[in-house]
Records
---
Amino acid sequence: MSIKRLNDGRYEVDIRPQGVEGKRIRRKFSSKGEASIFVRHILVNYHNKDWLEKPPDRRKLTELLARWWVFHGKSHHHGEVERQRLTSIIANLAEMGIKRADQLTRKAIMNYRVMMLDRGLKPSSVNRQCAIMSGMLTKLINAEEYQNPNPFHEVKAFKEAETDMTFLSADEMESLLSRLGGDDLKAVMLCLATGGRWNEVASLKGEHVIGGKVIFMKTKNGKRRAVPIDTALEAEVKTRATGRLFYPSYMNARAVLKEIKPDLPNGQALHVLRHTFATHFMMNGGNIITLQRILGHATIQQTMVYAHFAPEFLQDAVRFNPLTGAGRYGKKP
């Protein structure tokens, strides 16, 4: 362990709190006092002595957010959006007097959830907020920047009601396509042909459409996925070899869609194009595992919401129910 004065007047800490085989921690400070405080913090929190309990983390949540940004947020393509969400949640917690990590107990989290529900948030929205905070702490734990257990793991999520989900019929699709033009039409056609999200399709470049496939790069889970398309559609949408292909208007496409289908469930809007692809894929006899890969779902449970659209889904209920067996309806199996 050492605190060394550098040529620029700062002080560098170089320490291995778990011995020569352990992790090496180095950091620079403007004063020797700050460096000494940091050394004491490291020796107390980063030891490998199982018989010594690690003390509560008394850092401010805003400090943890800053460390999350350094180790994860700034290098993630959704990092800035996530930071804004975390900042808002931390501000809400501060209204309750929860400003430090050690104050973020199971009871405090449960009180926070009640406060958010009282403000009119849906259980699903509260669950998402808790998941976002939990994710921040998990990233810090993985980066060895947070040494205490994740308190959000002790709180069971609210049970969420299944959201309404609709899709466009063949006639509604024809009506929608006939009323759009230019870039809006191209984007909607690609959404219906690939199941891509609007922002995934809208940001496509010429180099992402090649060999009869659309390659989605900026996806929700960060993983690339490729979806085949018809050669005629490829020729229609690929107007240049490189660079962004089009600049569709979300608001215009949404307005036309709402005129055609005014009873869309709240919060769906153009996401109904993705539902339409998945629904017709299953109705036409598509495979549920293939659909999972096309949509880029992490688990098959996410894709199973479309399973009941398959032609043969649960047909055994008709063939094997007791009325059929008694010869009252249908044919005996």
---
Amino acid sequence: MPNDDIDVIAPNLNRRLSGVTATVISLVPLQARKVGITATGVALPDGLPFTPLWKLPFLKRRLRVWHARRNNEMLLGILLRSLGLMRLKLVFTSSSPRKRGGLTNWMTSKMDAIVATTPVNATVMPGTPVLIPHGVNTEVFAPAPSDIFGTGDQKLIGCFGRVRHMKGAHHFVDAMCELLPDHPDYTAIIMGRITPDNAAYAEELKQRIATADLTDRILFKDELPLTEMPRAYNALSLYVAPSLLEGFGLTPLEALSCAVPVVATDVGAFRDFVSQDCGEIVPKDDGGALAASIRTMLARDLPAMGTAGRTRVQAEFGLEREADALVALYRHLLGQT
């Protein structure tokens, strides 16, 4: 993309795969059809419109939008503008349901626009945020045959994300230890990164599984690249999101887009898109309720529920909606509307 055509800069300043990184990678190609946008930073795939960080101050001087999604990205945008290195309108999107501390509030006060992704998120954001929910690319996350986990004829129940306490993996393991003996045709998949600080937690989970004599039916799998995630969801019959805390929470939405029904805790935006025709919502941090809900779901018509879930995602939560709303915000800030 010629430098003169860049209207919007989308930084990604975290090397770890996260929901924020996935959002940038998914949104930028769609937005590039409608506005001059470039990504910058680290851990971004080839093929994405991209400008190295070091080149940004040397772009032709004109007004641009800097869309931050993390504190360090806010700070860099503030510095670039305050030091006179770039003319910027600053945007910050956050999905966190928690109130922010002093430094974050100070940085947020310097933003020209604030975007919240859920009504709950909006109530803890300073100022007057614009509500723009996340979406999912329903063409990429679409039903297709998959045996990516190599489990043959076994039906799969999946739980994806970093293996740590706040993701509720212990409740998922306990539920599977209770339910799988009664459902010999099912295997459970726990897929996600185990960081060194969570190694003891993961080992405890594996010991629980071994005690239940289910090591061959509750399987730990390494984190997959983003490009392989649709295949991961499509291998499942049921997806479980047992989180104790989420900002928005994309994984249940991605599962539903692949026509996989969902059991999820009542956190983040899960309640907004998991309805009774495509899944169940249970109280957070309630292992008994989670196990009971999964048991109920296994007795229902899971393929029909998955179809209903995909229909809802296509109608209400397509990524195109999010992209269009953000592009409209960018154009407003740039005086193009």
